[in-house]
Structure formats: C-alpha cells, structure tokens
Amino acid sequence: MDMSLDMKSSGMKSSGMKSSLIKSKRPTLQDVANLVGVTKMTVSRYLKDSNQVSPQLRIKIKEALDDLGYIPNRAPDILSKSKSHAIGVLLPSLTNHVFAEVIRGVESILEPAGYQTMLAHYGYSQEAEEARIATLLSYNVDGLIISESYHTERVRKMLSVAGIPVIEIMDSTSPPIEQAIGIDNQAAAYAMTECMIKKGHSKIVYFAARMDQRTLLRLQGYKAAMHDNGLTDLCISTDSASSFSMGEQFMKEALEKQPDTDGIFCTNDDLAIGALFACQKAGIKVPEEMGIAGFHGHDIARVMVPLLATVITPREEIGRLAAEHLLSRLKGNPVTEKVINLPFKIEPGESI
Amino acid sequence: MDMSLDMKSSGMKSSGMKSSLIKSKRPTLQDVANLVGVTKMTVSRYLKDSNQVSPQLRIKIKEALDDLGYIPNRAPDILSKSKSHAIGVLLPSLTNHVFAEVIRGVESILEPAGYQTMLAHYGYSQEAEEARIATLLSYNVDGLIISESYHTERVRKMLSVAGIPVIEIMDSTSPPIEQAIGIDNQAAAYAMTECMIKKGHSKIVYFAARMDQRTLLRLQGYKAAMHDNGLTDLCISTDSASSFSMGEQFMKEALEKQPDTDGIFCTNDDLAIGALFACQKAGIKVPEEMGIAGFHGHDIARVMVPLLATVITPREEIGRLAAEHLLSRLKGNPVTEKVINLPFKIEPGESI
DNA sequence: CCATGAATTGTTACCTGTAACATTATCATA
DNA sequence: TATGATAATGTTACAGGTAACAATTCATGG
After folding, report:
1. Fold for domain A185-313?
2. Within a 13 Å sphere around the CA of B345, how many CA atoms are in the beta-carbon half?
3. Is B72 in contact with A138 (Cβ distance < 8 A)?
4. What are the chain A neighbours of B24 within 8 Å (beta carbons)?
5. Contact at 8 Å (CB) between A106 and A319?
C-alpha cells in the first residue's frame, strides 16, 4: 500500500514524542484517514452520511475521529462554494437594549436553522458602516441584516456586487434596497402625541437623544401632531446616547425653558423613566401635573409605579421575521413583500 | 501575451450581455487582474502595499477594483493559514442585559484591533455549549471567550485540540482552563448580606432565577452570611429566566411563606426592581418595613426612587479585559495571571 | 464460473489569495 | 557597452474538504 501521498499532512506525529509538548496542528481529515488507513474521501463520506461507508470502517473511523478529536473545518467549503452558513447582523449600537432584543429574535431563528451569527456594530457612523459591511462580506456571509435606511453609494455597490440577500430592519417607511421590516416610527409618534393631547396635556416637550434616523422620524410625527392640534412644539436633544440620567437632566432643562410644561414625550423609555424619577424626586405629580410617555415598551415600564405610557414595538419579532425572510430567500424564494410594516401599540399606562 | 490560463475565472463577462441580468459571481482578484492585464499576484501586491507596484499600474488597478467593486475575500487565508481574525464569544444568554454589556466591552477592544466577533449563546445547556463551541471552532476562530466554569470533557478536548487561546469570564473562583476573568460572586453576596444585616434586617429571603453556577455561588455566599450571624436562610427560586414581573411574583410568595420577612436579596436587579415595585403597590415601605437589594448595578438602580441597594459589578470591564488579554495572547505573550479577580462594590442606595 | 450491477473506496480537480521563488525590465556605474 | 543591483512582474504550489468521475470488490443469477 503506497501511502506516500497520504502522509503529507499530520507531520510525524507517530514518532513517540509527548504530544502535550508538540504544538500539534489541529487534525485534518487526512490525519483521521491516515490513522484508519483509508483516503480522506472515505472519512468525508462517513461524516456526511455514515451509510455510505462499510460497517467495519464506520467503527474504525469513529474511533479515529474521537481519538484525534477531529473538529470540522468550514474553511474549504467557504472557499470552494462561497457559502459560509453565517449571517451578518449589523446594528448601530449594542448599548441600546432594543437592539439586544432584536439580536435575540434573530438568533432564535438562525441558530436552530444551523446558521451562525456574525455580529457587528457601527456606532451610527456611515463610514464605520461601510467598513463593517466590507468585513462581513469578506467572510462570505450568506446574507445580511442591517438597520438604518440611508446607505452610501459604496455600501449599495458592495451589496449589489455581493449578490446576497439583504434585509433592512427597524423602520418601514423608506424604500428598501430589497426588503425592509419594521414599524412606521412617524405614525407611532403621532399617535402617542395625540393620545397625550386627548388626555389633556398641551405643553408637551419632546426629549431626543442620538439623533439617528428613527429618532428624527419620531420627532416629525410628534411635531405634526402638535401642529395639527394647534400646539407649539419644543424639542430638547443631544447627540450622545440616551440614558436614565440623561432623562433626569432633560427634565430640569425642560422646566427651565418652559416652566408650564405639562407633558414629556421621549424618544425611548430610558429617557422617560429618568424623567419620571426626576419628577418623583422633585415632588411633581405624574400624571396630574406632568404626563410622561416613552417609546418601545421596556420591560420595566410594565411593572413600575406609575405604569409608564409607552409605544410598544415588536423588536424581537422584527428580528425573528428578518431572519425568517432571509432564510426563505436563501432557499431561493423571491421577495414577496418589499416592505413589512408591523403594528405598534399605544399603551397609555398610568403616566399620562 | 498568453492569457489562456488567466481566463479561467470571471466567465465571459465581456461579451456584452447586460450584467444586471446575469447572476454574476462576485469578482475575484483574477477578474481585476484580467481587466488590468496583469496577474492576480500583482493586484494582490497592490492591495497589501501599493508601493510594490509601479505608479502607472497603481492607477489602473485602483480603477479596476472600483469598477468591479472588488470585495476582499478572507476564505483562502483562513484555509491556508488557519487564521480568521475572528473571535468567538459564547455566552449563556442574550436576554440578560448583563451579557449585552459584556459584549459591548469585548467589541470595544476587538473591533478597533480589526477582529470580528462571532457571537453564540447556549441557553445554559451544556449540550448546546458543546455544539456552539464546535461550530465556532469550525470557522477557525483565532480565540474564544466563554463563560461558565464547568465544561464537559468533550469541550475540554476540543479546546485543547484547537490550540487557540481561551478565556473564561464572569466568575473568578473556579480553576480556569487557561485564564479566567471575573468577580468573586460568593464573596460579593456575602458582603451584601452582611450589609443588610448591619442595617437591621434579619428575616432576609433570597430570590433566585436561572439556577446557573453564578447564582448558586451567590446563594452560597448569602447562606454563609446568614449562618455566620445566627440567622435562618430561605430561598425562593425558579429555573426560568428572571424578569421584573418574576420579582413581583416572588415578593408575594415570600410574604406567604414567611409573613415577617423584612429583607429581600435578589440574584439580580431585575428581580429586585420587580420586588420593589410590588412593595410600592402593596403599600409596604422600603426600606423601613422591607429592605431590598439587587445584584449587578443596573443603570436604572442609580436613578430610581428609592435608589436600589446593589452590588456594582464591572461587566463591561470584564469584556474589555477578556478581549485585551486574548489579543495579547494572540501576539504570542504567555498567560501572566491565570485568574484576574476584579473588585465589586457594595452600593447601599436607599432601599436597605 | 463468469457477467452484472450495486456497494464501497479511490483519484483528480477545484475554490482564491499569497508565500516563495523565478524571471524580466530598468538603470547607474565601471 | 557590459555588469550587477534593484525594481517590477510572473509562476508555481499550497491550504482542506468535497463533487464528479473512476476503479475495485462482492454477491447473485444465469
């Protein structure tokens, strides 16, 4: 039996040196095959469908695999088929718990389907978004889930050239590259503002942080509702990230700028909760003297005293749906709905 | 000029068909080279260090790259060098915001260093952990950050065979595979329990969810402190995940089982916040009639009324340090400290 | 006892970028 | 002009698993 060709890999492992001292390379199929005395093709067949291999060999191959601790290697497959079984997920931020829930939704679908998630974030910078997308594509991801709706020309070109399915998530109002899944942020903010007005609030201030596209859309919705009801809008904002303490700070600012403020609508629950606690500390009664509403439906909003008014958004479902539609497209199905507009829910709670 | 060999890839793209109709393969270096009229090696040199290529070619190559929208491909490199520039991060859960902060810390180091994060989670199941680790290794990750301290024999074998640096995070008390970074959960729980006792609470109940290893360690610390002070311990727990509403529910349960309960120590802030709001709803004064403490130092704990007593843990720093030490090891540096024990901080707040 | 076909195993080529080595072009100096 | 050095470009081989095709084995029926 001529094994000269087969001995290329695996070095001279059998020469009796203590393996713990050798920086031994991770075993390949060839190493397993050498141990059994067959070609790597036979071992490959065993791994894909053991029925293709004779019963005697099955036992020996299994032993060899366990013995060497063989770990499958996707690299050759990725190279030859350009299929990685990995999905790139690109989000603006990991700080925001909203995106953590999106990831959870995505993973709940991808993981059972045997797909690996490659996570990246770009801190709301378009330059960084370009770089992250290039990186994800360099790993030959089979599909991409991205957020935001504005993309540079270079990003669009890369996505087009890559030829993989892309799904944009979070907002449903901009024309998608291929397919978008999200909510109508502007309509949601309009609805909540109207709800606050109906409850009797009129000097409502908008709290915004991280002026990304979705926040701007919500701001527009708020302004439209105020205007349609003959009220004056006022926005307090920052470019940095939102936080509970930012909400506290904004509350003070609002009362300075407009002492008769009787309502606060926040671009997310973090700010709203901070504002609410600031009122409690200052002895301002919520909702009698100050109505406070948030956005997204943070878990805590459903247990706190008073219950926070908020717009309940289907973050996790957005993630799930994005993953499901991506998998469907990977199976070759065409895009059925270019835009999937999910419903939001106005939860008045006890704070407005 | 004989180009017969060079025309293998790229098909017959130049034959005037509308490229938008062709399911065109993503361009390779060969395609770029064909367009310029050089070999792919020259283009490869340009990409790595454009000085290695003549000035005239530089211009033409740049044009061709832009024109075709070439995207680098890591697959060949991963195959031939077994280096992916990707780091696997394996966490028990993505639901828990504590882990979201760990991820943030990890990414804050890995991303600027040019490493890609491959995220996976295993829902506290050892079987799933095995599968996830095998998957991450199949992508040839250059290093791994994992949590938990107990691992199956198969996991240990895989990690050993893979020969890549591995860092375990979250707890610092178990002997690590190679290196561990975390806090002493047991000592932290002991300290907080003692603090509650000193504040005058004695019938303290422990709320636990998701009985993972860290929760069990904290429970031990609580029990030890109670015992050392001659007090009786009582634990209310569930195997499912913690949540704010779970904390509310536990509060009712505690008062049924032990009506004179005057303190609650929770394995995390979610439960504590839920318990606190339950007290507010029931008219139980905190901390006068009921002391409540949490664990981790959720952002909200620092703004709520009353301020929540909690153990402030350096989640993000754990992530950062893990990534930094991993990068250091990838540069060839040896493990300097097998265990890095980070300090926690007892924050009494206003709720005990 | 050989032909037939199914079952089993082997062989070759391929995917793409780059290290290592080889070749050709360019230029200054003897 | 020849020569050697340097710059620029080309050629070959390789990483590891698998598709596609080839070869071998073996049992069964004619």
Report:
1. Rossmann fold (3.40.50)
2. 7
3. yes
4. 163
5. yes
